[in-house]
From TrEMBL:
Protein name: AAA family ATPase
SUPFAM superfamilies cross-referenced by the UniProt entry: P-loop containing nucleoside triphosphate hydrolases (SSF52540)
Domain ORC1/DEAH AAA+ ATPase: 46-158
Molecular function as annotated in GO: ATP hydrolysis activity
Organism: Clostridium chromiireducens
């Protein structure tokens, strides 16, 4: 249905709940994700674990399915310093703590005993509060909790879910799944929901639905082109569509835009990268590790500049067609195509060594640098925004 009064920023929402452009997707077993989450919430005594790459719609899914008044949202980061799980929850929902526990350098046995007792009372009260108010704990970004906290939370939850406490743990793949998914104590009491990355037709739907809401036509091939450049990310799709709206000034009632045409797209892609900055990451991986006095081989490229293998590998990632996973042969072919035709080309092993060293540099850095993952002889780009920046932002 068309609504003339909607602003483009109401329709395309890259950073929060997209009321007007929400798309329902099917999981691998052909059931809607919303349906799966509802079913899981209906089984008492289970813990729900949602895993999916960054910005694939985990938080939005929970917001869609669980009414706001039932949600209690906490982040793994709230437990990064080993704060007590039940105290954090008690504070969050406003359950009064059993008096203030003061630190005492010479804790006697009696005091130690009463501290444990208070802790149990807090736990019981919190569970009782959740159950009687039909609340659902949504523990987002579980990977931000320290490993100790993750283990301790898992064991607290194991006990709580038996008592009808409802909880959803959200985390990234490979990162924080062990304490939950590989926890023998929780075996048989887990509902697992794996959020896949987005397919082209699903991404297209966002553009089609959104522009339809704004009463603007969008040809299928244009929606498709934007979907390809969105690199599996619904967030990028929302960002790019919003950029198109801004550039075309569609909220300005004096300017009548009736259809999206292809001439705006390149500008919109570039404009979108103004919100994303990976300059430090690009600089880190294209410089490579410190070369101890040894000079790196340089290659003459079709860009009319000399590049070493690190720079070439980075450029190769950005080439067409956009791809989130490349083998060493793919990268070598792309690198070769960047080097002037009659010039010598690097051998395969050198390309592989370069990729592995790049990965090592990233592994030593903070989370923000974790844009690539070397696995099963392939390099995966795990952050779509990074690849988008490489393609359009420099
Ligand atoms: N089902 C959906 N339909 C449309 N857009 C979505 C959907 N899921 C996610 N998005 C877009 O992606 C953005 C990021 O989603 P979010 O749930 O925050 O990701 P995650 O929690 O997995 O990191 C949302 O703000 C929204 O713009
Ligand atoms: Mg999230």
């Amino acid at each position: 249905m068309c609504n003339k009064n909607l602003m483009s920023s109401d329709v395309f929402k890259p950073c929060n709940f997209p009321e007007h452009t929400y798309i329902t997707r099917k999981s691998k077993d052909d059931i809607d994700y919303e349906q799966r989450l509802k079913l899981a919430l209906n089984i008492s005594g289970t813990l729900i674990s949602i895993i999916g790459s960054s910005k694939m719609g985990k938080t939005v899914l929970c917001e869609k399915v669980i009414p706001l008044e039932r949600q209690v949202n906490v982040s793994g980061a709230d437990f990064s310093n080993g704060q007590d799980f039940w105290n954090v929850l008690a504070q969050k929902v406003g359950v009064p703590l059993e008096g203030q526990i003061t630190e005492n350098k010479q804790i006697s046995n009696i005091e130690q005993h009463s501290k444990t007792e208070m802790f149990i009372m807090t736990k019981d009260k919190v569970i009782e509060y959740f159950v009687s108010n039909n609340k659902v704990l949504i523990l987002d970004d579980f990977h931000y909790a320290s490993l100790d906290a993750q283990k301790s939370i898992s064991s607290h939850l194991k006990d709580a879910i038996r008592r009808d406490f409802r909880a959803i743990i959200i985390s990234l793949p490979h990162r924080a799944d062990a304490p939950i998914r590989k926890n023998a104590d929780l075996a048989g009491r887990l509902s697992l929901i794996d959020i896949d990355s987005w397919k082209i037709p699903e991404l297209e739907e966002i553009a089609i639905k959104g522009f339809n809401e704004l009463n603007i036509a969008i040809p299928k091939e244009i929606a498709n082109y934007i979907a390809v450049e969105s690199l599996t990310s619904p967030q990028l799709m929302q960002y790019i569509c919003l950029s198109i709206c801004t550039l075309l000034e569609i909220d300005n009632s004096e300017i009548k835009v009736t259809e999206i045409t292809s001439d705006i797209l390149t500008k919109a892609f570039k404009f979108t990268t103004l919100n994303i900055d990976y300059a430090d990451v690009v600089s880190l991986i294209s410089k490579g590790p410190l070369s101890k006095g040894k000079k790196r081989s340089k290659f003459n490229t079709k860009f009319n500049v000399e590049m070493d293998l690190y720079q070439l590998v980075v450029e190769s990632l950005a080439q067409n067609p956009p791809s989130m996973g490349l083998t060493i042969d793919d990268i070598r072919d792309r690198v070769n195509a960047l080097i002037n035709d009659n010039d010598p080309k690097p051998d395969r092993q050198k390309v592989k060594d370069t990729v592995i060293r790049m990965q090592k540099l990233i592994d030593e850095r903070e989370d923000i640098y974790k844009v690539l993952e070397w696995k099963d002889e392939k390099i995966y780009i795990i952050d779509p925004l990074f690849l988008f920046y490489l393609r359009w932002g420099r």
